[in-house]
Amino acid sequence: MRIGILTVSDLGAIGKRPDTSGDAIQEWAGGRGYEVVVRSVVPDETGGIAAKLIRWADSGEVDVILTTGGTGLPALDVTPEATTAALERSAPGIAEALRASAAPGFPRAWRSRGVAGTGGKTLIVNLPGSIGGVRDGLAVLAEFIDHAVALVSGDKVTH
Questions:
Q1: Nearest alpha carbon to residue 68 among 31, 93, 36
Q2: What are the angstrom distances between the C-alpha of 47 and each of 6, 56, 68, 98, 133?
Q3: Which residues make Cβ contacts (< 8 Å) with residue 113, sequence separation at least 6?
Q4: What is d(CA 24, CA 11) in angstroms, rounded to the nearest whole number?
C-alpha cells in the first residue's frame, strides 16, 4: 500500500515545530509494510491543503492519504473543510469510528471534526494533530484499512 502523509501545521510549515505526528504515521506505515511515497507539511490554509490532496489523489501514486492536524474547533483549523472540498465521496463511518474508539479514554476526542472519504481511487482520512490522537486513530485504521483500500481501488474482495 502506498501512503501519503500530509501534516497541517502553521509552525511546522515554517520549520518551528517538529513533525512528530507525521513521524508516528511514517513509523506505523513502515511497521505494516506500507510505503510512504509522499510526505509534506503545509500551513492551515484551505486552498493549499485541498490542492495538495487533489494533486496527490489524482496522481494515481497514492492509495491512502493520512492527514494530521487542523481538525479541532479553533477557527484556524480548516483541514476538514479542505478535505471535504477534495473528496468525491464521503465515508463518515471512518471518522466516526476514530472518534468513538478514542472517546472512552479521552472524551475530548468528540471535539475532533475530522472527515474521511475518497478522491478517485484514493482513501483520505483526517487524523488529529496530537501524537496520542494519531496513534489512537492508526490503531482503529489498522483493523480495516487494507479492506477499505481494496474496495476503493476496485479489487475483488470477499465480504
A1: 36
A2: 14, 14, 16, 25, 25
A3: 71, 72, 73, 77, 80
A4: 18
Q: Please report, to the nearest 10 degrees, the dihedral formed by the alpha carbons of residues 3, 43, 17, 55 taken in order.
A: 20
β-strands 35-42, 116-119: how paired? unpaired
Pairing type for strands 116-119 and 89-90 reads antiparallel
Q: What is the mean pLDDT of residues 121-126?
A: 98
The string of DSSP letters for 26-70 reads HHHHHHTT-EEEEEEEE-S-HHHHHHHHHHHHHHT--SEEEEES-
- One-letter amino acid of 109: A
Write the pLDDT tens digit of every residue in 71-109: 999 999 999 999 999 999 999 999 999 999 999 999 999
Separation of alpha carbons 119 and 84, rounded Å: 10
